Amino acid sequence: MPYSDFTIPELKKNFGLSVNEETNLFGHIDETEIPATLADILRRWLPLSLNLNTEKARSALIIAPVLTEFRLLHRDKVSLFSGIEFNVDDTAGLRGRCDYILSRSPEQLTLNAPVCVLVEAENENIVAGIPQCIAEMLAAVKFNESQGSPPFPVYGAVTTGILWRFLKLHENIAYVDSTEYTIYMPMKIFAILTHIVLNDET
Questions:
Q1: Total domains in the fold of the chain
Q2: Residue 74: which domain range?
Q3: pLDDT tens readout for residues 11-30
Q4: 1 and 164 in contact (C-beta within 8 Å)?
Q5: Of 7, 8, 23, 49, which cross-links 61 as Cys (Cβ 3.0–4.6 Å)?
Q6: What is the CATH number of the domain that holds 86?
């Protein structure tokens, strides 16, 4: 089935997962500076995206610029993919198109491990996007393992553009961050992206 069709009960039953919703995953992460280009984009485009108030506008004017500027800042270490097929395990239903994938590899022509995934929330509903994100993270675990990547935690995020909620998958526990961050905290969001994409963690 497509990633978006999964529910939390199905994920728990099919993959033996437990879900932890009470952990502040990134409260200890210090803010980091964001590129001047991104600060200018947010200053100029954020009001427009709010007034347009559509998923497409928030994707084009907020989410894509944040991820693109992150990739450009770390172009020697990171690649960014959008809207690609990520068919990892058909028998388990781990197949479908991903909104965004960040890879800790500078190669842009092909997807390499390790990866983390980002889901655009539909209808401004972060919670409804969490099962899809967990399913994509399960696929990311299998993908990373298939490429010989060490079994570090896999991370993901669900975002409306305005709100960002991060997740962590490790040893069959899906951690859903107890804190949501807003785009008005771009330095915190950038710091978390740096942590989940570039830092090895056991």
A1: 1
A2: 3-198
A3: 999 999 999 999 999 999 99
A4: no
A5: 49
A6: 3.90.1570
